[in-house]
Design a protein that fits this description.
With about 500 residues, this protein is of the alpha/beta class. It has a domain of about 210 residues: FAD/NAD(P)-binding domain (3-Layer(bba) Sandwich). The protein contains 18 helices and 23 strands. The strands form 6 sheets. Strands 8-7-18-19-20-17-21 form a 7-stranded mixed β-sheet. The N and C termini lie far apart (about 65 Å).
Length: about 500
């Protein structure tokens, strides 16, 4: 594509986006004060979005009922503890930077201990284009294939910011009014791969970027919006990452303790019906059909689940399109337990960036004490579908062989393993949302928009999609919408 074709495509994209609605962001975290009479609110989904909404509405004085299909709270925040010596691993979100203020502040409010999720003095490793090479602290690497001089100088980790850095700086704080600016909105017309090619990235640089966190999103760089890629990189770069010591599931559990009486587990939503005065939710709770009628409903269910629930009257056509068209990334994680951490003795931290079937690797036990250790394969998109189609035994064998291509001598220490296949999870059907070209500015505002007395939350309705911060932010936004909706009921018209 030459410059003229590129500008023409951007222009077409801008024309289609000109009349789009703005993207809504929570004005603040918590601090709700009743804007009218207390309301009854039913919240669908006990992940972080639903929990945050329930917690804040309850604190403000509203009457809340939270319906969750699983036996436990947390949704896609899940800590696996079926390993030896008390080791654990995150099947969902792993770590977060301090500028993810909703996550950071709730964790500190609840007194949850935090730890830097890194270890100084260890290298990472890459296996790309058939070659294995080390990545030193700071990203310096002897990349054994062709790169432009500026790309080689930038280093492995800085490759995305070399090309996306100007756009990433424009992202700034998504909570400011008028976000995103027009200069970013126009990127939504392209895939990230198209943008990188238009900006002059070499094929080697694109392969390196594909091996980063961006390669996990959707089905690769040619499957999602360039705006989505820029925002994803901007909100997850440039800061120290932290983890909750003892497991991230402590965060949803802390919320649940504060809404324990309102939390109804094993409640599968079957039907949502609303009129001008109320909303009624019908659910199957442990084999018994129950109904809950409320002033308002907050739906924090993934759209992959909501699309199979009967809604009366039906949502508007554009909302139905958003529910049907927004997609979740398939993700398979395979966790292997070893008698010792051979990779650390060899000077590696467990992070691997590859174009192999295992995609990326990391060590969930990097900051945990003990001799035994875990390595995890983290695959998204087609690789996740391919490796999930294997038996558990074959999947672990495949992961062990490919991890051996990265870290020498580890196979003799292998003991056992397990997997988390998010696209096969009954109540998720995927790991996190990705936006195809045109969807972030086109469908995200519609996904957020209340429909009558029904409000919407979840990572799929947030700029920080794929992160705990996004779920928590969306729960606060929806809680604020419900609270403000009560102010209309407080208005008395006199003649």
């Amino acid at each position: 594509m030459d410059r003229r074709d590129f500008l023409k495509q951007i222009g077409l994209g801008l024309a289609s986006l000109a009349a789009m609605e703005g993207i809504s962001i929570a004005r603040s975290r918590g601090g709700l004060r009743l804007a009218g009479p207390p309301q009854t609110v039913v919240i669908l989904g006990g992940g972080l979005a639903g929990l945050a909404a329930a917690y804040e509405l309850k604190r403000a004085g509203h009457t809340v009922t939270l319906l969750e299909a699983r036996k436990s709270a947390g949704g896609r925040v899940r800590t696996l503890r079926n390993f030896a010596d008390g080791l654990y691993a995150e099947a969902g979100p792993v770590a977060f930077p301090q500028n993810h203020s909703f996550t950071w502040e709730y964790a500190t409010d609840f007194g949850l201990p935090l730890n830097i999720s890194a270890k100084i003095g260890l290298n990472s490793i890459a296996h790309l284009r058939g070659s294995r090479f080390s990545i030193r602290t700071g990203g310096a690497a002897d990349v054994p294939f062709s790169l432009k001089p500026a790309e080689r100088q930038a280093g492995f980790y800085a490759m995305p910011s070399l090309y996306l850095g100007d756009h990433m700086r424009e992202v700034g704080n998504p909570r400011r009014s008028g976000w995103p600016p027009d200069s970013l909105r126009e990127l939504d017309a392209l895939t990230l791969e198209q943008l990188l090619q238009n900006l002059g990235a070499s094929s080697g640089a694109i392969d390196i970027i594909e091996s980063s966190q961006l390669g996990i999103l959707g089905f690769g760089l040619d499957s999602f919006s360039a705006l989505d890629g820029v925002v994803t990189e901007a909100i997850a770069s440039g800061g120290i990452f932290y983890e909750i010591v003892g497991g991230n599931d402590q965060l949803p559990n802390a919320f649940k303790k504060r809404v324990k009486k309102q939390f109804k587990k094993q409640a599968v939503v079957l039907r949502i019906e609303q009129n001008d005065e109320s909303v009624t939710v019908t659910c199957d709770r442990k084999g018994e059909i129950q109904t809950f009628t409320a002033d308002r409903v907050i739906c924090a269910l993934p759209f992959s689940i909501l699309k199979d629930i009967e809604v009366s009257p039906p949502f508007p056509q554009d909302k139905q399109q958003a529910i049907g068209d927004l997609k979740l990334t398939p993700v398979t994680r395979t966790f292997l337990q070893f008698r010792s951490r051979q990779w650390e003795r060899d000077g590696f931290d467990g992070f691997g960036y590859t174009d192999l079937s295992i995609q990326n690797t990391y060590s969930p036990t990097l900051t945990q004490p003990g001799q035994r250790g875990l390595l995890a394969s983290y695959t998204g998109g087609q690789r996740a579908l391919d490796i999930s189609a294997m038996s558990e035994r074959d999947r672990q064998d495949q992961a062990l062989r490919r991890m051996g291509d990265l870290f020498s001598g580890i196979s003799s220490g292998y003991e056992t393993g397990t997997s988390q296949i998010w696209h096969e999870d009954k109540w998720a059907r995927g790991a996190f949302t990705y936006f195809e070209p045109g969807q972030m500015t086109g469908l995200l505002p519609i996904a957020q928009r209340p429909e009558g007395r029904i409000h919407f939350a979840g990572e799929h309705t947030s700029v920080w999609h794929g992160w705990m911060n996004g779920a928590l932010e969306s729960g606060n936004r929806a809680a604020d919408e419900v609270n403000e909706a009560g102010s209309a009921q407080a208005i008395v018209i006199t003649r």
